[in-house]
UniProtKB/TrEMBL annotation:
Organism expressing this protein natively: Maribacter arenosus
Name listed for the protein in its UniProt record: TIM barrel protein
Gene3D superfamilies according to UniProt: Divalent-metal-dependent TIM barrel enzymes (3.20.20.150)
Keyword Transmembrane: yes
Span of domain Xylose isomerase-like TIM barrel: 57-265
Length: 291
């Protein structure tokens, strides 16, 4: 009798508990704690062109305990030193950028720069995640099935390379065919052996704002990071968080889908001190949470 009563009570309240949890996620801006954020695009975008030592000091000054490492060819001479300094200062390297362009990379062959970055990771014995994206020129004049087949082969090649370093791979939405998260999902499903992840970037999602609920629900099972940005449909592509019309609801949508971080804070502004850019974005994120 008592057991039956308890089961009946639980059955009555469970739907309400589920709604309450969903409501909590939807309102959960208080769940984006600073310790659950990291800076992104702070190497290639910095008018002061900080040295590795200066950049690590900046991260510590602001209070970041992790960051994602972007680079251009000119930074490779300093990459080993910077990643070593980050490790020595207990700053987690959540990812390293790997951009493939058909002008210099091909199936089963990486450019000298990309081979060099993998060599640096190997020499440091650094276990991290490669954020991988493919340029549009890989897919020019190809039908969908041809594009998918090509993407699968290239990502498989990169994932094998990463596994040799005990690193992981996450697919990064940039632009073109490979920048479509639904295309990336098909690549992931074709390569289950690699346990691929995904990184979603607001600043590459202007054409998909209306589709964010469907995108968030579809990719959250594979999502390892979301990079934030102020979002308007028209005008400047890069905006401080809090200066757009859509980023607040987009964040809520991802939280409601079950994604709880980490969240990227962009330094992605040409000809500006990246410290000022990061602080403006941090202030903007705080302002969204108190609105």
């Amino acid at each position: 009798m008592v057991k039956t009563y308890i089961l009946n009570v639980l059955n009555f309240f469970l739907p309400f508990l589920f709604v309450m949890v969903q409501y909590s996620y939807a309102q959960g801006f208080d769940k984006i704690e600073f310790k659950n954020t990291y800076p992104w695009c702070i190497v290639a975008y910095d008018s002061l062109e900080r040295s590795p030592k200066e950049r690590i000091a900046l991260l510590k000054e602001i209070g970041f305990n992790k960051y994602a490492y972007d680079w251009r060819d000119k930074h490779l001479d300093d990459t080993y030193v910077e990643l070593k300094l980050a490790t020595e200062n207990n700053i987690e390297i959540v990812s390293v950028w790997l951009w493939l362009n058909a002008k210099r990379d091909s199936l089963n062959s990486l450019s000298d720069a990309n081979q060099r970055i993998l060599g640096i990771l190997d020499s440091l014995n650094l276990k991290t995640t490669l954020w991988v994206s493919l340029s549009e020129n890989f897919f020019e004049d190809l039908a969908y099935e041809q594009s998918l087949s090509k993407a699968i082969k290239i990502v498989d090649f990169i994932a094998i390379k990463a596994a040799e370093l005990d690193c992981k791979v996450a697919l990064y939405n940039h632009s073109g065919w490979f920048g479509n998260p639904f295309n990336q999902l098909e690549v992931i499903k074709a390569l289950p052996q690699h346990e691929l992840g995904m990184v979603y970037n607001f600043h590459h999602a202007h054409g998909s704002i209306e589709d964010i609920p469907q995108i968030a629900n579809a990719i959250t099972p594979y999502l390892i990071a979301v990079n934030l940005n102020g979002m308007k449909k028209d005008g400047d592509k890069i905006l401080p968080i809090g200066k757009g019309d859509y980023e607040k609801e987009m964040i809520r949508t991802f939280i409601k889908s079950g994604f709880m971080g980490p969240w990227g804070i962009l330094g992605h502004v040409e000809n500006k001190d990246v410290k000022k850019v990061l602080l403006e974005n941090i202030d903007g994120l705080i302002s969204l949470q108190v609105q």
